[in-house]
Amino acid sequence: MLSAVDTSVRDDETRTLLRTLDAAAAATVRTNVHVDSRWALAMRLDPTFFAPALPPSPQLSNMPFGVFFLAGRHFEGYHVRFTDIARGGLRVVAPATAEAHVVESRRHFNECFSLAWAQQLKNKDIPEGGSKAVCLVRPVAHAASGKARAELLHACVKRFTDSALDLLVPSDVVVTPSALAPSGEYVAPPPELLFLGPDENITPTDIDWIVDNAAKRDYELPSAFMSSKPLTGINHKEFGVTSEGVAVFLAEALRSVGIEPARDKWSIKLTGGPDGDVAGNMLKILNRDYPDTATVVGMADGTGCAEDPNGLPMAELLTLFERGEGLASLNPSSLSPTAELTLADTPAGAARRNTMHNRVVADAFVPAGGRPATIHGNNWKDFLVDGVSGAAPSSKVIVEGANLFLTPDARLGLFDRCSLPVVKDSSANKCGVICSSMEIVASMTLSDDEFLELKPTYVSEVLDRLRELARQEATLLFAEAATCPAEPLPSISERISHAILRAEKALGGLLSEMGHEQRTRLWPIVHSQLPPSLVARHAARLPELLPWEYQRSMIASGLASRLVYREGLSFVEGLSDERLPAFALQYLQQEEVVRTLAKQVAAHAAPWASHVEARLLRGGVRTAAEQADAAPRASK
Q1: Which of 388, 381, 330 lies closest to 355 in space, CA to CA?
Q2: Domain around 314
């Protein structure tokens, strides 16, 4: 084909296009092209096909584990994942105009890849690696708004997810020559599992349909195919799981600039409407935790923006949250004379809405909605406002509740100019994926009825776990920042992720070599990663229903994160690649020993018992691991 292209096609752009199509065909490992009942074309591509488009990554390899491309009526989509067992949301991007669709098309794969990579860094505390799916819907004249638009988006979600199942469920899927053994024989590919979650423009109706269809298609774990199920899952918006973590990082960020959020008066601006998951639940948390100190001075969503230096009416905002309505539905009579409500139904109104996050001055800014790269390398200076002593940022801290709202060069520019603390998304909003992981564990081990019976207790325990993991990372993040004031917070955040993922990889390799007896001894560590109610009621079935590969990832990720959060970056980064696996193994083994000893201490009725137990767990594991690790080397 290429020789024919070179001889018969004169236009350079056309030749490049045809060569790329030929390379994509050669890189296709699996496809549903010959499945008669397919709703869309689906291909699993060799990730190395995308190597030229990947940004440099000196610390960790960012080569994806798998890439799916799907194309159907009115949409194209990608799914990118960085490990075999991976988790990440499905978002639907629906540009209103053909011009906007061209812009989104140009960055479609890059957005999906960047979101998946951010997810990989974010998923450091859970067994699943990072992934993301982005379904880009073409503008359709008859579905510009209202019911027709909702039906179009739902149809595209159905076609996207059902076509992905064509590549996952044994059927008439074609395995291409690139997937054959060197002998030319067909080798059945290992089973693949995708764990999706809801993102932009995914509704409860979509979630229910995806799970039901996966069951009809005989997918191995249909209930685990999609998280945040309205009834038999933990709905993110209902329980505010992402916002709970954002709030923990926000509190630590405010303390880092001298504001005690429960004592001092402070102001906040948000992107994302009161009807949104992260923004709406942030309003609830602000009202719950800081009713007398926090003031919302600005908010923007798809319908418009509202601003008031004296504070927007919290009661009215919470009413909109409960009703699922945007700022356009805000009651004007509830606003003070200093407030301003601007609808985004005109070019001027949209422009004012789009600049709210820059113009309004507040102590804190939480991007809780909005498109990726809203603040980028060419416009970050717009976030500065003129002050008495020159230009200063329009907020004292930024906590990224939305993914990729700021680009890396924008974060760096704001830090270089004014040392602005920016808590990166891979830290700030990580609790949503942790919750989804806990939901998937329940999906793999409990029937729907069992989960519904356990759900109130289970959800409460999950929320406690989310806050604790957020607190551990936030404490480490700002402690490291205090000792390294010249290093930007996003850089420290990435170092934390890299350190955990590096330790996790070292532990995972060692765990893979363990026999059945050794694996059995590790169950106390698995239990510590699970909600207590699940272990208390169903411990006997867990080893059988949780695949060893999942258990291995759970142990490795849990211990790796505890190692980094407890011992700090300098210690873990100081362990060489040669020493890290052996030390990680010692840390794993001594964790068991110290936990047993701590339980024995805690059993004493003495008033000092709890203090000694806490100190043993805090420092005893590292001390014991260092001694055990040094012994063999000292004997040489």
Answers
A1: 381
A2: 258-420
